Amino acid sequence: MFVPQGLAQFIKVNVTLENGEPVFIYTDANGQQCPGDVTITQAGTVTYLLNDQTGKGLKFVGVGFVTPFDEIVDAVTISSDGMLVQLVDLDRTPGNTKFQFVLSNTTNTLLVLSPDPEITNRPQN
Question: InterPro entries annotated for this entry (predicted)?
Fold first, then answer.
């Protein structure tokens, strides 16, 4: 999925339970299933919207990066209700970075990790 300049890109993070385990399915703005990965060609923001279908009160509490200093993603913000995560990407550094969403739940104090979507920067300059 490519993020055009000046337009907000939304990806819905649908979480269900299968045999008691969380299953993450990403869908684009048109409701089509996608891998959750995004390719950035110009500065922009990618917004992930949580659609918790588990009944466990999931909320975003963080985003974890294996390589947090690679300068691919420039900033992360989480809405106060834990339903939105925004990744700010100024598209200055070419390359890829993988991350995982960190979610809390109302059932216990354990945290849930998502599969790792990926941001790819391909600056036009």
Answer: Cupredoxin, DP-EP
